[in-house]
Amino acid sequence: MATKDNNSAPAPDAWRPGLEVSGIVKRLVALALEEDLATGDITTDPIVPPDRKGEAVIKAKEDLLVAGMDMVRIVFDAVDPKIRIDVLTPDGARAKPGDIMARLSGRLRPLLWGERTALNFLQRLCGIATHTHAHVQEAKGRDVKLVDTRKTTPGWRLLEKYAVRVGGASNHRMGLFDGVLIKDNHIVAAGGITQAVGLARKGAPHMVRIEVEAASMNEVQEALDAKADVIMLDNMNPDQISQAVQLIAGKALVEVSGGIKKETIRTMARTGVNILSCGALTHGARSVDISMKITV
């Protein structure tokens, strides 16, 4: 479990799992190292003797919220399990420019081999956590949950959704396998919302909610009549959303999707919806500036 200090972003739930070393994460790290190292490091190997040891520090170069320190461990463990890593800013902590986030020691060759790959993971995940936390602050004081989407970098979903949680938001479904979301194309394929909900309810496990995307008041009414558990209002303006909330009247959870960004969160939250889904939490985040310096 990720540890926190007094400067940590608030967790959305009482329990928040840390970054698990899943098969996907291991394969992703292996692929990233293969991509960078290929047949070897033709700069480092002629310059640095194989047994020469040294130390390094990882430093923040801007204000950021830390996420992904486990990835530093996973990367360097892959290149040399004997490298020692002392994390000074755990996931969920704040870092300021110049703060030392971790100290590393061991053979210099593996430290240099893993430097760029470790930083790529860390910069991206810290970027998402920092970006997400800024969005969460806009929803503060409102009884609404901010969630991500499946708009993630292929292969990075577990990592990016983890960074979203560190930033204080919540995850929508992880993939097509763990949540029923009937969208416009499903509705067309099934012949209507009523038919799609009926078929989905027959096929889905009894513990799974049925969510339906609605783009008009007529579709909201049909989703209500079909007894959808969650109704996603797609690309509606605040007035339309308020009208839909009144129509639904607590008979289903109300989610809003489309056009959710930091500048619109407060306005959307005032409409009385339960959930705001924002793809920009992941695809709109930039990698933050973090460096690693060798100190022999």
TrEMBL record:
GO cellular component: cytoplasm
GO biological process, one term: NAD+ biosynthetic process
Pathway: Cofactor biosynthesis; NAD(+) biosynthesis; nicotinate D-ribonucleotide from quinolinate: step 1/1
UniProt domain Quinolinate phosphoribosyl transferase C-terminal: residue ranges: 128-293
Domain Quinolinate phosphoribosyl transferase N-terminal intervals: 41-126
Domain of life: Bacteria
EC numbers, comma separated: 2.4.2.19
Keyword Disulfide bond on entry: no
GO molecular function, one term: nicotinate-nucleotide diphosphorylase (carboxylating) activity
Name by which UniProt lists this protein: Probable nicotinate-nucleotide pyrophosphorylase [carboxylating]
